[in-house]
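This is your field. Please look over both lines of this record.
***
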Amino acid sequence: MKNIEPRLIELLKEGNCTPLISQVAKKLKEPSTTIHYNIKKLEREGAIKTYKAIFDHSKIGQGFCSFVMVKLSPDEYGTPERVGAELAKFIEIESVDIITGDYEMIIKVRVKDQDAYYSLIKKIGSLKGIMKTFTHVSFKQLKSEFVLV
């Protein structure tokens, strides 16, 4: 059988996972039509942006996780969204947040190993507007997206 696992994982990471209405209805002890109506309403209102899978990242070749604090150059303080948009283009970056404190941003990175991390951090450091990075490595994830793992 054809192995489409890498392509499937990327598709699921992008959000192509829909809830099984019948399972939700059973758990909430509500009719499927009520569940369907309420889910569609939340989607229309933008409260639900997407559905995605939660992975055991070590099993899909992304076992090295780090949180990188990003210090912007003074000329980028007023528009951190520009730098954030550039960072968001990297497939290895799971999330980008603008924060308060000594750093202006925090990014969550998932890669295969520290060699892949080193390669990525060199690219990040060369982006216009990034002055400095400070990395915290995650040893083990216990909860993700409100789900215990």
